[in-house]
Design goal:
This protein is of the alpha/beta class and about 475 residues long. It is built from 18 helices and 22 strands. It has an 18-stranded mixed β-sheet that branches. It has a two-stranded parallel sheet with strand order 10-17. The chain has a two-stranded parallel sheet with strand order 14-20. Helix 4 packs antiparallel against helix 11 and helix 13 packs across helix 18. It starts with a helix and ends in a 5-residue tail after the last helix.
Amino acid sequence: MRAKHLLVIFLASWSLLACASLPEVDADQAKQQASTVPRVVGSSGKLPRQTTEQLLKKRWAKSTLDLKAQAALEEAATGVPLIAGNKVQLLFDGPQTMAEMMKAIASARNHINFETYIFDQDELGEQFADLLVQKQREGVVVNVIYDSVGTLGVPQAFFDRMREGGVRLLAFNPVNPAKTRGNGWKLNNRDHRKMLIVDGKVGFTGGINISDTYAKSSPFRSGSASRRARDAGPKGEDEVGWRDTHVRIEGPAVQAMQWLFVQTWIEQDADDLRDANYFLQVPPAGDKVVRVLGSRPEGRYEIYKAMLLAMQEAKKSIHITCAYFVPDDQTLQALVDAARRGVDVQLVLPSVSDSGLVFHAGRAFYQPLLEAGVKIHELKLSVLHAKTVVIDGVWSTVGSTNIDRRSFLHNSEVNVIVMGDAFGLEMEQAFKEDLRNSSEVTLASWNKRPLTLRLKEWLARVWDYWL
């Protein structure tokens, strides 16, 4: 999917765009600007200093991040506060995630705001569209933002049918210049977010699009499925589906997701949103403290800054699962430096990809990472599409952002950061499960790769800015 979309963007925008650059991220500078106690807001607004300190007072061993200090650093860099009182459920692969999303949509009483990069007209897409139309007919306000490049091959009739059913739709940054709205033709800027917000109380985000590629689950947490796929060979790999991660959130943090959706709608110079109870005072639903970060082109690079600061401050471990991994210089250096200071840096990356160019560009960075002591594993048996990071077992993020310049510079993205060891333990367990379904790439084996692969890596890396 990604290869086709990137080709369209590249061919249409190469001659029109100047190269943007990522900001320098310096942990020492952020420490000078950080407050002693970060802001934490709840359902009733900003929490008192004493309550904030109590939420973040737990101290782990010196070999682990100090969450209060890290939270203050991130706030200084991003300007976004933490939000207390949330329930966060980790979801794996398409079937589980789609079941939860459809259940939430079916229970909607006031409004549904849905934002996605890909919305295919296939069996799963038709089911999703039918449910949205049904809720609109029941009197629920339904608003949908879909990316015009991510849905490039989808017949317009598919969206027209939803529109005729009363659903309000917005095509993000149209491919056709004639359909450009007041914000100008910005083909290279894409909406890569995946967000579903129901009644302002329940939210979903992560890496999963609406497509039949997610109709089958990966071998995640299924030893028997893994064995069957190994026995079946390439056919088995096709049968086990895509490996991805999403989260379901209840609590005040959903309102931050709501604002990101409304902001995108307004910035696209679209018609006014229909009246609904979009912004409520949502009561606490759990004990998770989270930060909702939305980034967009020419913005403040909030997600990039938060990830990089956490990597720079890591004391014990950095565990990354990433579908499209083409790191910029600062990210590469942060991972190398962490490994050299004794941090356990491990990456789960794809062994196959829907974008060969991105796949080989990412592999061009294996040499310096392996030489620094970073452990690289390639996931077998399924197509990797997850985008997750867990650092020191206490700082976790799940979202739509890949570790590449396209996500950081050119896309609108959304990530949720969850603070604490309870959720971190779930993330670590998921990472270990992915390791069991992966093969390690060693420096010795990598040095023996054929010349043809080296040439592909070199050629792909030439274009890494556009990937």
